[in-house]
UniProtKB/TrEMBL annotation:
InterPro entries: YtfJ_HI0045. This is YtfJ family protein. Keywords: Signal. Pfam families: YtfJ_HI0045. Residues 1-24 form the signal peptide. Gene3D superfamilies: Glutaredoxin (3.40.30.10).
Length: 207
């Protein structure tokens, strides 16, 4: 194979390598349901599970964090998650949905991973946590194993941003700006006052 042919093949396949997921901008997420474990609830100091479906994602501006059940994957997008947590966004308009793929955990650590998710739910009861024991969302959305993905949805449940992998500084700023826009749109619809300014964290952000 000649050098020019190799270059042509590389250029043809680069878009597929960088956009392997099945999300489409301005479209709903591909339909998926999680029935093995599913959404984690915490009420009256007790945990329980219920079936979860992507049909539940509309109604609020939302950031979906899909993450493999591994410490390395969990740390990939910590700068963005820390930024959102510290922003104290209005719960009537915004929610973070974290989907943990326990099927993609280090062998023997599944119980530990579920325990960490329970700790997070207990500390952030207004956030949504989904334990995906069979990796159904990962397969339906064609996400990279052992990784982390960020998806921003508007209140109609349509994808406005997606990145399969760690966000760099510019992408974090892009997400923050997009959330400002979407939340102010919701504010104008409901006319309830001024929304908080989201300040990005300055540590642990990799370019």
């Amino acid at each position: 194979m000649t050098r020019m042919t190799c270059l042509f093949v590389a250029l043809v396949f680069i878009p597929f390598l960088t956009s392997a997921h099945s999300f489409a901008i301005n479209q709903p997420v591909p339909s998926v349901g999680v029935v093995e474990k599913g959404e984690l609830n915490y009420q009256n100091e007790k945990f329980s599970y219920q079936n979860w479906s992507s049909a539940q994602l509309n109604g609020k501006v939302r950031v979906i964090l899909h993450v493999a059940g591994r410490i390395s994957a969990r740390n990939m997008n910590n700068p963005l998650i820390t930024t959102l947590r510290e922003a104290n966004l209005p719960r009537e308009y915004y929610q973070t949905t974290t989907i943990v793929n326990v099927d993609d955990a280090v062998i023997g650590t599944g119980m530990f991973v579920r325990g960490r998710v329970k700790d997070s739910k207990q500390a952030n009861p207004w956030s949504q946590f989904v334990i995906d024991s069979n990796g159904d969302a990962c397969r339906a959305w064609e996400l990279t194993p052992k990784s982390s993905a960020i998806v921003v949805l508007d209140a109609q449940g349509k994808v406005r941003f997606v990145k399969d992998g760690a966000l760099n500084r510019q992408e974090i700023q892009q997400v923050v700006s997009l959330l400002h826009t979407l939340l102010h749109q919701e504010e104008s619809h409901h006319d309830t006052g001024t929304l908080p300014v989201i300040k990005t964290v300055k540590h642990e952000i990799r370019d």
